[in-house]
Structures are given as structure tokens and as C-alpha cells.
Design brief:
Elements (H helix, E strand, L loop, with lengths): L4 E12 L2 E12 L3 E6 L5 H8 L7 E6 L2 E2 L4 H6 L1 E4 L11 H11 L4 H15 L14 H12 L6 E5 L7 H16 L3 E5 L3 H4 L4 E6 L2 E6 L1 H8 L4 H9 L8
Parallel strand pairs: 3-8, 3-9, 6-7, 7-8
Antiparallel strand pairs: 1-2, 1-4, 4-5, 9-10
Length: 248
């Protein structure tokens, strides 16, 4: 494996009977890259992400995540990634501190290191006065920021974000992406799905899945040039209508 690649997929396929949820997709994600994984509902994004997170076996093809094989080393993959679901995943009946402590332990961070990182995290997020509040009492935007911070608390090589900003206001979405940029700058690879086309513009590169296949793969600016349009909304619209496949 190339040492500069966080994820490598080659002809990755997931078949259910005669139906191909993921149909021979191939792409690479560089270390520290912000990689957008786009597609309409049913396009195969979630199925592909489950395979890459070590939660499902592919039918055929190959893939490595953080250098580990998706067939043989699923547990090693899980230890080296973070994951944030589109559905809020923290415990609302625990306090902010209790959630961080719990997940730090789950991720195998030492008690001493957990205490040190908690102090840093609470200060960074500006949650000093809310640290002992139940998470359920926080506004959605703060919950999402906290969930992301917990997902990278153990400093994984890669973090998978599944529709992380769904339901939050535009200002909070922008703040959330500032956090993503900071994580990427620290060396964490970001693999993110989103249905907000303006967020696709924030990614270094994006892939667009249509009916289980990767139908476009490039930087947002290059894709707009290739399709002769001014926005990712228009790129996505053309691909959804069956425009000519574009790859790089």
C-alpha cells in the first residue's frame, strides 16, 4: 500500500442477490484529505461506508482502510477510525463530561490522558459552564460539535462522518466545517457524506455515486469546469440525469 493513502478501493462490490448496492467502485483517499462521498438516497453510500468501517464484508474487489484489509482486519480498522452518525450518537442522559470519559474509555485512552484531553476539549469548545449539564439539554449545534470532538478524541487516522450537519443552521454548519479543517490540518483524514451541495465545495475532492457506481471523481472546481457549470448542484443534477461519466 502507498504510505500516503488512507483508503484504497479497487473494484469494490456489494451484491444482494441480483442487486448491486455497490458496483465495482474504485478510488483512493490521501492522508489528511477531506474527501466528500456524495449521492442520492439509495445510491450506495451507506453500504460502501459500512464496508470501509469494518461493519460489513464486500462481495468482491479489494479495499484497505488505514492500511488494514476490509476482509481480514476489520477489528484493526475499527480501532484506527472514528465515526459520527447522522443520528446523534451520544448519551443524552449523561453529562458532557461523562460522555467524553465514557467514550475515551471505549476507545482505549488511558485515564491520565483522558483527563488531560478533556480539559483541552472543554476549553476549545467553550463548554466550561456546560460541562456538568446533561447532553440532552444542549442545543443541537453544540451536540453535533461535541459528537464530532468525541469521534476524534482518540486521535484516529480516519474519521467517517455520515451527514454530520443535518438539521443544524447555516452558521453552525460553517463552524462545524472549521472544526473539520482543524482536524484535517492535524493529520486526520476526513471521509464525509453530505446532501448539502455547498458543503461539497469545502472538500478537497469528491466522488458522486449514482446507482451503486462512482460516476464522478475530482475536485469540485475541476468537476464544475468539466460539466461547464457554476455550482455543484448543477453537477449533481446532470449526473442524476445520466450525463457522461467523468473520472480523473
Amino acid at each position: 500500500m502507498d504510505d500516503n493513502k488512507a483508503i484504497v478501493c479497487r473494484e469494490l462490490t456489494k451484491q444482494f442477490g441480483d442487486f448491486y448496492a455497490v458496483n465495482k467502485i474504485s478510488f483512493e483517499v490521501a492522508k489528511g484529505e477531506i474527501f466528500g462521498f456524495l449521492g442520492a438516497n439509495g445510491a450506495g453510500k451507506t453500504t460502501a461506508m459500512r464496508i470501509l468501517c469494518g461493519l460489513s464484508f464486500p462481495t468482491s474487489g479489494t479495499a484497505t482502510v488505514a492500511g488494514f484489509d476490509v476482509y481480514k482486519q476489520q477489528e484493526s480498522i475499527k480501532k484506527n477510525i472514528g465515526y459520527m452518525s447522522q443520528k446523534f450518537s451520544l448519551y443524552e442522559n449523561l453529562t458532557v463530561l461523562e460522555n467524553i470519559e465514557f467514550y475515551g474509555g471505549v476507545y482505549g485512552v488511558s485515564r491520565k490522558e483522558i483527563k488531560k484531553r478533556i480539559d483541552e476539549l472543554i476549553t476549545t469548545l467553550g463548554l466550561q459552564s456546560e460541562a456538568k449539564k446533561l447532553v440532552g439539554e444542549l442545543p443541537l449545534g453544540w451536540k453535533q460539535k461535541l459528537a464530532f470532538s468525541v469521534a476524534i478524541f482518540h486521535r484516529p487516522q480516519i474519521v467517517f462522518l455520515d451527514e454530520p450537519t443535518g438539521g443544524v443552521d447555516p452558521v453552525t454548519r460553517r463552524q462545524f466545517w472549521d472544526m473539520i479543517y482543524e482536524a484535517a490540518a492535524s493529520g486526520i483524514t476526513i471521509f464525509v457524506t453530505t446532501h448539502y451541495m455547498d458543503e461539497a465545495e469545502y472538500c478537497n475532492r469528491i466522488s458522486v455515486m449514482v446507482d451503486g457506481k462512482v460516476e464522478a471523481l475530482d475536485s469540485p472546481s475541476n468537476l464544475k469546469k468539466k460539466f461547464g457549470v457554476e455550482s455543484m448542484d448543477e453537477v449533481f443534477y446532470q449526473l442524476a440525469r445520466g450525463a457522461k461519466r467523468v473520472e480523473s
